[in-house]
Amino acid sequence: MNLRLLKATQLIVLLVFVFGCSKEGTPGPQGEQGIQGEQGEKGETGTANVIYSDWIATEFTEEVTGLTNAFFLAENIEVDISKDVLLVYGKLTEGNIDNVLPLPFTNVFVGEAYLFNLVSDSNENRLQIIGLTNDGAQHAFTFFEFYRYVVIPGGVSTNGRQMGLDFNNYEEVIAFYNIPN
Predict the structure, then answer these.
(1) Does the residue 117 lie in any domain?
(2) Assigned domain for 98 exists
(3) Which structural domain, as residue segments, surrounds residue 126?
(4) What is the pTM of this model?
(5) 145: buried, middle or exposed (CB in 10 Å: 19+, 13-18, 0-12)?
């Protein structure tokens, strides 16, 4: 008899737990609002994950002239040419005014063309600046004094604002991506 009573009691307790709990009924009162955390420090304005170089002095010299000339502007540059945007600019100073122009650039007045090339070998990307003549004469390729590159990773979200951005306009690019000059 005791065994039956024990089993019946266990069954009743089990049924009360299984069927006695439900989400019906009036909800309890709302808990109090937690304490507000401290304000974090304001971070620096970002550059949207854009990679850029400082201005790098040209390695073309007046002592070396030819129909073509080249030098490496950067070694180990992080760029995936299949999805990233690679921009290169040349800078020359006339008086107190800096003129920044995109590469490739052709100076028709002196018969020079300035190009860039990404040389990939083994696990390294090297950015090369190339000077070519288009008039068949010997040149020193000293039109630009400095060069700079900008890499815009393919995953950088622009929320559609980039649609009207002119990559040939250096001032627009540095303003849009908050790149220091």
Answers:
(1) yes
(2) yes
(3) 62-176
(4) 0.69
(5) middle
